[in-house]
Amino acid sequence: MAPHSLYLPRHRFQDLIDTLIDAGYRCIGPQLRDATIVFDDLDSVALLPQGYIDKQGPGYYRLEQQSHQRYFAWANGPQGIKPYLFRAQETLWSVQRNADGHLHFHPQQPEPEHIAVIGLRGCDVAALSLQDAHFLSGDYADSCYAARREGLFVVAVNCSFSAATCFCNSTGDGPGVADNFDLLLSELDHGFVLEYGSESGRIIVERLNLELADDAMHAQAIEQIEHAAQQQRQLPAIDIKSSLFANLDHPRWQEVAERCLACGNCTSVCPSCFCHSEQDVPDLDASSSQHVRQWDSCFSQGHSYIHGTTVRADSKLRYRQWLTHKFSSWYEQYGRSGCTGCGRCISWCPVGIDVTEELAIICSDTGADDDA
Amino acid sequence: MMTHDFNMPYEAEIIKRTQECSNVFTVHLRFTDPSVQAAYRFSPGQFNMVYLYGVGEVPISIVSDPQEEFLLGHSIRAVGRVTEGMAKLQVGDRVGIRGPYGRGWPLQQARGQDVVLMTGGLGCAPVVSVIDYIMRRRNEFGRVVIMQGVKHEADLIWRKQYERWSEMPDTQVLLAADVAGPKWPWLVGRVIGLLDQAVFDHDNSMVMMCGPEMMMKFTVENILQRGIKERDIWLSMERNMQCAVGHCGHCQFGDKFICKDGPVFPYTEIKQLFGRKGF
Predict the structure, then answer these.
(1) pLDDT tier at B93, thresholds 50, 70, 90
(2) Which pTM value belongs to this model?
(3) Nearest residue to A153 via CA among A1, A22, A273
(4) Out of A32, A74, A91, B125, which could bridge A108 as a Cys pair, Cβ 3.0 to 4.6 Å?
């Protein structure tokens, strides 16, 4: 905890929301919907999933109400911050065709918007950096992503509880949040230790006029992170990056393909997956057309289509592509693994494929026999 | 004035259209905005995203001479939803063009060396601009060996151009067709079968390849056995591309994005996965 940490009593959490809204932010926060926790517009603490915890496992997600009063005692829902920056679907440009066949192209730049997202965890803050690296670095910064990223205010939360599917401790991305936040909360029984990580964060904190957090609060906040770090799952403690490409012919690829439905749930809930397709949506009178991009998945049939053939025609090759990219190729592309240990791909896989288990088997020297 | 985002096309007009063979056609284009036309530059081996109104975009290599200031050429095989629609376009029709994208051929590095071009099918398209480039600077390069293979003799396009190039100094043109009739004057067989006739300095040459991946795989294996060094082999690769700037993820080949890291690669950069099913 930083020395300038402050104490925000729980009954004043609404003040934080109000202060953000007063400062011009559209406030987004976690709330209950469809028996999960999702991010959506938030103007009242009444919407927060107070008292809830999440029970997660392979292909399993259930919420449970408990007797405590905490807002953030759950690990995560199916959705991180990704849809707010990299939209599931958006128009990149439109084109009009006039009577003589001339084409007029029009850019569709999103209006810059100031969004404050409350409740991002270590895994999602790390995934935010990964998406930044993908969409903003290099010669072609994505203007849609950049416009939204520019106005983003991150209110991160240190996890005090891990779901059974979490393995951020072994990827190094959680359960505590190290950087890339504007505000950081550690939730205690009666309130929050609050610190800022940016100038915009400092301005918000000053407006709240809070007391300093005391040593006992700091100690409890740290103890909670240490508790959350005791996770049931972890990545195998071997050189996954090299092992995957050394095991491209491992029999486990076929075995997992026989369970995998190639549905793409894993890539949809993954906070770092960036694949998208582009397509034209012409208007009914054919006088104009929208050029739209939408999330795609390396598990889809069309993902590797090329003039009449498909490079990855079966699930075995698609699952191998996903895993080798996420846990190996990503190092060369962006300097680290593409996985931040959120565990969503495990919970939201309809057949409960556990990426940590698959990696352990594929990357082990002894092969599938030990664990099958 | 609104800024023009890199992912949005510019309008271009078809000035000339040539039917090369039953399913390959070439369009010669000019940007309708003269300032766009004047500013457009590309290197041989780069590609454009060509947009068909209301249907979509496809990545197509540029066949025209980079010093040709007036028209931009694209040779296209009608094989999918977008390209079959494009095949119906006529002179005067408008399309969208954005680009150029990617890394082209290592022409600076090839100076002073023999240049060996091995292509298959429409793989000949991305090297036409290389040949034009070299022919304009003929004394800066050594021998030029052009080898092109097609499945059927009817698939051979630019026959007259090949005949013209074969008359250039220190230039050898070798053609092959898997299936050909008695009037076919060249080899009946694979492009690889032309290597025995090819004359070039194995210690001082640059081999540039473009074509079906299996053709390139067997050709690479063959020329490595003949003593060509790995570092002297360059390949133009192809994958599904939708954004052309390394964002959409479709063209990934291991850790490479074919669109922005390639499409032209030194063999040494991609050999680990080259020819491997599923990548």
Answers:
(1) very high
(2) 0.94
(3) A22
(4) A91
